[in-house]
């Protein structure tokens, strides 16, 4: 029939949307080429723009390990739009002391002797924390975990109870903390790192000190006023948040509790964590603070010295602890028995 479309070909009107679609795609390509000409030539190594990393408290870049990523996953910090920023990546490793494998053989003789003097729960936390520290420090130092040399020296009296350090790697800072079943190790290329975790039960002891008037050892005057203005039900959690932030800072500076925590004045627990006042020795440190999620019934905080933003990458230490235990059972060092009955 005259005017009929050949078999397999749609009438002309049906082709119009397709033509319009091709026109839109062509116009889009023209606009893209024009935009590229306005931007100038593409520099080698420059790819598609990425979304900036989310920002956490007090200017911190705070990122968790992505779901399903391996325990050793180390994402690169992503700078915000508008130019690169100085970012320090801090790796935070969490372990459960009640389920951690026996790794006392990784500790040196001094640590094993110290662990042997502790009661069972404290010994378990101590061994897990120091074994985990050696395991996570083995990779950046290129050493076997048992060969990692940790030194703790008090700057005031010279005793072996100061801030732990790696004498052969001064720019590699780390910190250890444990409470209840939780063990945490923080590691970064920074001037100083401090981490602290506490059980909520610890807040009751602190609250008793505050209620008895021993505020000089806990809260600064402005903090005490904010504490007393809180509802009764919120005080324990707020006090523990203050305490973990203060102890994290004092660990990072190396002062420890030789400096009264009341000398470290912080923002209120409900505000972004920040150092607002300092009456300790020397000038106030430049420090970045972030609250960590240690699970129900716990509070934790991280402090990193310096003015750089901080990318926090958190890891489950269970797999690496189990792998280290398996390696000690099957490897050449498996014949070395832990000293003093440590397991």
Automatic annotation (TrEMBL):
The keyword rRNA-binding is annotated on this UniProt entry: no
Single GO cellular component annotation? cytosol
Q: Which residues form the 4'-phosphopantetheinyl transferase domain?
A: 192-302
Compositional bias (Low complexity) at which positions?
9-20, 324-335
- Which molecular-function annotation in GO is an example for this chain? magnesium ion binding
For region Disordered, the annotated ranges are 1-84, 324-343
InterPro entries in alphabetical order:
4-PPantetheinyl_Trfase_dom, 4-PPantetheinyl_Trfase_dom_sf, P-Pant_transferase_sf
Instruction: List the Gene3D superfamilies hit by this protein, alphabetically.
Output: 4'-phosphopantetheinyl transferase domain
Q: Keywords in UniProt for this one? A: Transferase
Q: Which family does it belong to?
A: Belongs to the P-Pant transferase superfamily. Gsp/Sfp/HetI/AcpT family.
Q: By what name is this protein known?
A: 4'-phosphopantetheinyl transferase superfamily protein
């Amino acid at each position: 029939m005259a005017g009929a479309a050949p078999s397999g070909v749609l009438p002309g009107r049906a082709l119009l949307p397709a033509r319009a679609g091709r026109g839109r795609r062509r116009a889009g390509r023209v606009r893209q080429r024009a935009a590229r000409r306005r931007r100038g030539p593409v520099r080698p190594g420059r790819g598609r723009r990425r979304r900036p990393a989310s920002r956490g408290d007090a200017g911190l870049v705070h990122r968790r390990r992505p779901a399903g990523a391996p325990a050793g996953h180390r994402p690169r910090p992503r700078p915000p739009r508008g130019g690169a920023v100085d970012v320090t990546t801090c790796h935070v490793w969490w372990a459960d002391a009640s389920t951690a494998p026996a790794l006392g053989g990784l500790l040196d003789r001094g640590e094993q002797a110290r662990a042997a003097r502790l009661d069972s729960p404290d010994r378990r936390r101590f061994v897990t924390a120091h074994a985990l520290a050696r395991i996570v420090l083995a990779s950046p130092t290129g050493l076997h975990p048992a060969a990692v040399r940790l030194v703790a020296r008090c700057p005031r009296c010279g005793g072996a109870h100061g801030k732990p350090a790696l004498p052969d790697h001064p720019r590699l800072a780390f910190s250890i903390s444990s409470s209840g079943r939780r063990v945490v190790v923080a590691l970064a290329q920074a001037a100083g790192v401090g981490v602290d975790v506490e059980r909520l039960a610890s807040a009751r002891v602190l609250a008793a000190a505050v209620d008895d008037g021993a505020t000089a050892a806990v809260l600064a005057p402005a903090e005490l006023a904010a504490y007393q203005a809180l509802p009764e039900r919120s005080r324990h959690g707020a006090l523990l948040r203050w305490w973990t932030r203060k102890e994290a800072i004092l660990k990072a500076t190396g002062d420890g509790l030789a400096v009264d925590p009341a000398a470290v004045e912080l923002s209120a627990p409900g505000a972004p964590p920040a150092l607002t006042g300092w009456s300790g020795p020397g000038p106030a440190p430049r420090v970045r603070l972030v609250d960590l999620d240690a699970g129900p019934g716990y509070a934790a905080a991280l402090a990193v010295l310096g003015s750089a933003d901080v990318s926090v990458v958190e890891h489950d230490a269970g797999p690496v602890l189990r792998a280290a235990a398996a390696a000690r059972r099957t490897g050449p060092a498996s014949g070395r028995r832990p000293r003093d009955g440590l397991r």
